[in-house]
Amino acid sequence: MNVEEIVMKIITHSGNAKSDAVEAIQAAKGKDIAAANELIEKSEAELLHAHHVQTSLIQNEACGNKAEVTLFLVHAQDHLMNAITFKDLAKEFVELYESMNK
Fold first, then answer.
1. Which residues carry this modification: Phosphohistidine (predicted)?
2. Residues acting as catalytic residues
3. Alpha-helix residue ranges (DSSP H) falling in the chain
4. Which phi-psi region, left, alpha or beta, contains residue 64 (left: φ > 0; alpha: ψ -120 to 50)?
5. Most exposed of 3, 16, 22, 55 (fewest Cβ within 10 Å)?
6. Distance in angstroms (rounded) separating the CA atoms of residues 68 and 61
7. pLDDT value, residue 102
């Protein structure tokens, strides 16, 4: 797999993770905490996939196969970090909605 394919996988999985986190907040807002928690789990699974792909880049670099740092790669990293942050905040929102609805 070339660097562009790796970068696209990071972007795709990160985007899916963020979308799942947004849906989790909406589900919690609609008082469907079970669905919200399932969506958080889906988000975490997508982030795990993105991390595995990112790790392949790191492992390649450790073996001496350094990838060129391009704007495309930086963009992928930005997507990943934003998705992680959004998922973490979504978990907090779900917990907040859950406690409000008790």
1. 75
2. 75
3. 3-29, 33-62, 71-100
4. left
5. 55
6. 10
7. 80
